[in-house]
Amino acid sequence: MEKFKAFLKKKDVVISGKRYGIDALGAMAQGLFCSLLIGTIFKALGMIPALSFFGDISGYAMAMAGPAMAVAIGYALKAPPMVLFSLVVVGNAANTIGGAGGPLAVLFIAIIAAEFGKMVSKETKIDILVTPTVTILIGVGLSMLIAAPIGKAAMWVGDIIMWATTKQPFIMGILVSVVVGIALTLPISSAAICAALSLTGLAGGAAVAGCCAQMVGFAVMSFKENKVGGLVSQGIGTSMLQMPNIIKNPKVWIAPILTSAITGPIATCLFKLQMNGAAINSGMGTCGFCGPIGVITGWLNPSEAAAGNGAVAISPAAFDWIGLLLIAIVLPAVLTFAFGQIERKLGWIKEGDLKLGD
Q: pTM to 2 decimals?
């Protein structure tokens, strides 16, 4: 056993929640961003006659979602080049067979294939044959066995959440908004979670609300400490930058969470806000404005997953645009700032508690 542990250590095979649940999951979201998400944005731009060439490009980007996710996961696991390149095949197989729940299948299968590939890498004199063979056989073999069930399970969970949100928009609006918003600020990937569950529709709208509440909320609430730089880095970057401060004083998290508990049901009950773009947009918030962009692209051209759940293209009215602006920007800014001021007066937040590190 000790020899095996030493071998795993030599191969940098670290079986841990952080390595797989944070590093790999976060990298998977980046892979999705660089393929499916950017392809979706290109597709929307391509609808403009003068920018039709973006539509031609979009298909190539979106088709590479599986390989991009798998390679990103392998990169996070520090896979050597031969393993990394072989994961292109694995990601394509897992995502294709996994269907709408493909991202979750890719996560599980790419991790296993990458780790086995790392273990055999450079262990033989014919590494150029052995490493890709092992990585691809294990990855594609597992895809054929378990990708479809994993994909269906993820879709089933996502369908339940979306069904429950349509039946109980107030309660689920709060739950989805708060939970996904918290996931966005934690060092895990809310975007990857939403993509894995294929979360769109009304539940996707609640998720957008929660993520925007965290990002815009922290950006505005901490403006006193972080000025314009902090406003930009958190507002269109990530609220995850506040995690060190949350660990030191968890009370700084109260204001954004309360805001998400308010904006979530407003989104689901009042504005009927639906996010019918690519599911990854549901968990992006205002990062690169991807959450609002997903809502807009979903209005004009619903994603395949959203269309499968009955979404159709619409011509948004003024009420829709006002709702999006309020949910994504105005209410998160106003409410979180107000709650933050109350916390400061109560002494729950002190000077410097929200200061970002240099």
A: 0.86
